[in-house]
UniProtKB/TrEMBL annotation:
This is alanine--glyoxylate transaminase. GO terms for molecular function: transaminase activity. InterPro entries: Aminotrans_3, PyrdxlP-dep_Trfase, PyrdxlP-dep_Trfase_major, PyrdxlP-dep_Trfase_small. It comes from Saccharopolyspora oryzae. Homotetramer. The keyword Membrane does not apply. It comes from the Bacteria. Its cofactor is pyridoxal 5'-phosphate.
Length: 432
């Protein structure tokens, strides 16, 4: 008899696009979740170390979110932002309060892509230019303009584009000439590259859009303070800084609430974008900008579902839970436990070139004996970890980085159990 999963995978492949990535040789249908665990339709339980690409921020099926969503669904499903919407106003107030930006305004969207699109709309309009800067190896979404600022070509088919993008160095991608430099030299080289690129462009440049730690790019962490140095250069030219916090926001890095705060010296970004985790699975994102920048748009513009009563009520409950339970602090503590378990793999398991990241955002880079990227090995470890009962992700320009980003409520016991399974998977796959 055909299994439920195999049959669904066949139907999936028959009707959905070929370019829609699907994990695992035998894809799984995740049906239910609770806490840090999920169950598939065949009854297998997994410890979720990827949280649906960092969407499950607090915990699966968090009762407060479920209650807020059901209550709101029982009242009014959706009207439109043409009417007052209490959950949207309350969520925007909360986000503004947490933003660290002066005189902030918040616009709510349905996704990270829409948030970045909006940020580009704001920056290009405000600056009167469609020339933008982005980092090499970046990922910012899948729309026409967010793909146009996505440096990672695996995710960005080259195409005609509404913005002109120039790419600068700013991510410590292993194997590149800059990656091995000490922090200060790496930072100086990136700043020199920024100056160099600016020198080659003519006319106004609108903005630099960047992830504080590249997510899809493989959790490559730049030196703290790099963006403060970038900002000094940008400020001289009046160029705006957009920090894409879709993966790094809400305390994920443990040490800070926002990723940009590791670079705080020169002040906050002009625009921050967010999505994923704030909704704990609900499709909501947004943009925060200084009033002057946000209000520079001179046309009506609404997002029909952005900040709908249901998603806003759920996001607010999720955010309240995150803060009341200090899940940022938990990310720092449990992230350190996980690193304690995983760091030893470097040197012990030959394929593990590097374990890196911050808080509960941990990447493991896999290489062949000659040091070249080992994407097939990453695929095997993913399979092996699943067989052991742990779901992880992968990424990196070469697809050879394992990505670990569990819900921020991960317990110490779960961290140790997951690490044990993952290390066993690494050893087993590495021996083949
Ligand atoms: N920015 C970053 C840094 C992301 O990681 C992603 C999603 N992986 C996006 C933007 C796009 O978000 P969404 O898929 O919600 O449109």
């Amino acid at each position: 008899m055909t299994s439920t999963h195999a049959e669904l995978a066949k139907r999936h492949r028959a009707v959905l696009p070929e370019w829609l990535a699907l994990y695992y040789d035998e894809p799984i249908d995740v049906e239910r979740g609770e806490g840090r665990h999920v169950w598939d339709a065949e009854g297998n339980r997994y410890l979720d170390f990827f949280g649906g690409i960092l969407t499950t921020m607090t915990a699966h099926a968090l009762p407060e979110v479920t209650a807020a969503v059901s209550e709101q669904a029982g009242k009014v499903l959706h009207t439109s932002t043409l009417y007052l919407n209490r959950p949207m106003v309350e969520l925007a107030e909360r986000v503004a309060e947490l933003s660290g930006i002066d005189d902030p305004r918040v616009f709510l969207t349905t996704s990270g892509t829409e948030a970045n699109d909006t940020a580009l709309l704001l920056a290009t309009g405000y600056r009167g230019s469609n020339q933008v800067l982005a980092l090499r190896n970046s990922y910012h979404g899948r729309s026409f303009s967010s793909m146009a600022v996505t440096g990672n070509r695996t995710w960005s088919p080259t195409s005609l584009s509404p913005v002109q993008t120039a790419y600068v160095h700013g991510s410590r991608r292993r194997g590149t000439p800059l990656a091995g430099l000490p922090d200060e030299e790496f930072t100086a080289a990136c700043v020199a590259d920024l100056e160099d690129v600016l020198g080659q462009l003519h006319g106004n440049v609108a903005c630099l859009i960047a992830e504080p730690i590249q997510g899809v790019g493989g959790f490559a962490v730049p030196p703290d303070g790099l963006f403060a140095q970038f900002k000094e250069v940008l400020d001289r030219h009046g160029i705006l800084w957009i920090s894409d916090e879709v993966q790094t926001g809400w305390g994920r890095t443990g040490e800070h609430f926002w990723g940009w705060q590791a670079h705080d010296a020169a002040g906050p970004p002009d625009i921050v974008t967010f999505a994923k985790g704030i909704g704990n699975g609900l499709s909501i994102g947004g943009v925060i900008a200084r009033a002057e920048v946000m209000n520079s748009v001179r046309a009506n513009s609404i997002s029909t579902f952005g900040g709908s009563p249901i998603t806003a009520a759920g996001a607010l409950a999720n955010l309240d839970h995150l803060i009341a339970n200090d899940l940022q602090g938990n990310a720092a503590r449990i992230g350190a436990v996980l690193r304690g378990e995983l760091d030893g793999a470097v040197g012990r398991i030959p394929a593990v070139a590097e374990v890196r990241g911050k808080g509960l955002m941990i990447g493991i880079e896999l290489v062949h004996t000659d040091g070249t990227p080992a994407p097939e090995l990453a695929g095997e470890v993913l399979e092996e970890a699943r067989r052991g009962g742990v779901l992880i992700g992968k990424g990196g320009l070469d697809g050879n980085v394992l990505r670990i980003a569990p819900p921020l409520s991960l317990t110490e016991q779960e961290a140790r159990e997951g690490a044990r399974i993952l290390l066993a998977a690494l050893e087993k796959a590495g021996q083949r």
